[in-house]
Write a structure and sequence with these properties.
Pfam families: GerE, Response_reg. By secondary structure, this protein is an alpha/beta fold. The protein contains ten helices and five strands; from the N terminus they run E-H-E-H-E-H-E-H-E-H-H-H-H-H-H. About 50% of the residues lie in helices and about 15% in strands. The mean pLDDT is about 90.
């Protein structure tokens, strides 16, 4: 179906904390006869409230914003507005973020370096019921799906490892034995398919499993 011939335009909402990005997207959408921008937001929380009470076909969403994260917003939208399709538009392509977004229910994961024409076409495809994941995003998603999920405790310990803590220091911080710490590290290195704790920490940061604050 060519939505340009349909009787009503695709109703979109933009969510991005950068005004320049919102302005650029708004300008592109204004030139599309089959699309209309219903609202734009700098944060996810007010968007979720708005969409739960307004007819919106598709939300174009950044993942990294102050306050409610993009992943949290996706989960909230899937609960409050299950008929609204969600597409991530991000500058980042970390395996873990892609995986979490897909698990939360997005229909597409696009990168901000794509052309405007390709973005508009992707919006149309998702609206029509297709999934839209560029090849390199799809490959990262497949790579991530092959790895087992880390438990919350394993993630916690991996965070300490990435910060340079020894097993003894991790054990003291978490009030567990060094033997338990070693077991967790053995399990997480196996799940991540890496050879040691240093490689595990590097891999976790590189793929977005860990987001270290500075």
């Amino acid at each position: 179906m060519n939505h340009a011939l349909a009787s009503s335009p695709i109703r979109l909402v933009i969510v991005d904390d950068h005004p320049v990005v919102r302005a650029g997207l708004s300008s592109m959408l204004s030139r599309q006869e089959d699309m209309t921008l219903v609202a734009e937001f700098a944060g996810a929380s007010p968007m979720v409230d708005f969409v739960s009470h307004a007819p919106v076909d598709l939300v174009l969403l950044d993942l990294r914003m102050p306050g409610m994260s993009g992943i949290e917003a996706i989960r909230a939208l899937r609960q409050s507005s299950p008929g609204t399709k969600i597409v991530v538009l991000s500058s980042f392509e970390f395996d873990e973020e892609i995986y979490q977004a897909v698990e939360a229910g997005v229909r597409g994961y696009l990168l901000k370096d794509m052309s405007g024409d390709d973005l508009m076409q992707a919006i149309r495809e998702v609206y029509e019921g297709q999934l839209c994941f560029p090849r390199r995003i799809a490959q990262r998603l497949e790579d991530r799906k092959r790895r087992a999920n880390l438990s919350p405790r394993e993630r916690e310990i991996l965070g300490f490892v990435a910060k340079g803590f020894t097993n003894k220091e991790i054990a003291a911080a978490l009030h567990i034995s060094q033997f338990t710490v070693r077991n967790h590290i053995n399990h997480l290195t196996s799940k991540l398919e890496v050879s040691d704790r240093t490689e595990a920490a590097f891999f976790a940061i590189q793929t977005g499993i860990l987001m270290l604050s500075h």
